[in-house]
Design goal:
5-stranded mixed beta sheet; wza like fold; 179 residues; single chain; alpha+beta; Outer membrane lipoprotein wza fold like
């Protein structure tokens, strides 16, 4: 009877990893749950630092950003083998903070959204419930930060849907403004 919870966990953890996307790439500010079976003092919730690293007892600094949870799990198990016989780890992204973007202004559901794959402006607007009746569809702005600078990109929704302009990608950290 005592083995049932462990048996259930063996099926639950892979299901959770699959549900969050097996191709999810960990980024800075993401919150990770690291579990090491039989080693409660090594299991913890961690923020990925802005330099992309996490810090764990015994093994120290480990680069997490740029890896999938599965790849990070394998690396942690490899590093822990120096200290623990047959370590078994689980890495779960509890809060995918690195993949956020924002939509504000004249949309039905303004707020913060997550990017889990390639996302175009028209798709982002659909996630926000579309336009309100007062929206200026010709004056959509994407505020983008990169290399310490802010860029202001303007788009005309009508031109995009008519095929006269390309549908731009929305990137993590972007803010879409619909006047």
């Amino acid at each position: 009877m005592k083995r049932f919870p462990i048996f259930a966990l063996l099926f639950l953890i892979p299901a959770l990893l699959y549900a969050q996307g097996e191709n999810y790439i960990i980024g800075s500010s993401d919150v990770l749950e690291i579990s090491v079976w039989g080693e409660a003092d090594l299991s913890r919730q961690l923020n990925v630092r802005t330099d992309g690293f996490i810090s764990l007892p015994l093994i120290g600094e480990v680069k997490a950003a740029g890896k999938t949870p599965g790849n990070l799990q394998k690396e942690l198990e490899r590093l822990l083998r120096r200290y623990i016989k047959e370590p078994h780890c689980a890495v779960i992204v509890v809060e995918p903070r690195s993949k956020r973007f924002y939509i504000t202004g004249e949309v039905n559901h303004p707020g913060m959204f997550l990017i889990d794959s390639e996302l175009h402006l028209t798709q982002a607007l659909a996630l926000a419930g579309g336009f309100t009746q007062w929206a200026d569809k010709g004056g959509i702005v994407i505020i983008r930060y990169g290399s310490g600078k802010q860029k202001r990109l303007e788009f005309d929704y009508k031109r995009i849907v008519k095929g006269k302009s390309l549908d731009p990608l929305v990137l993590p950290g972007d803010t879409v403004i619909v006047p």
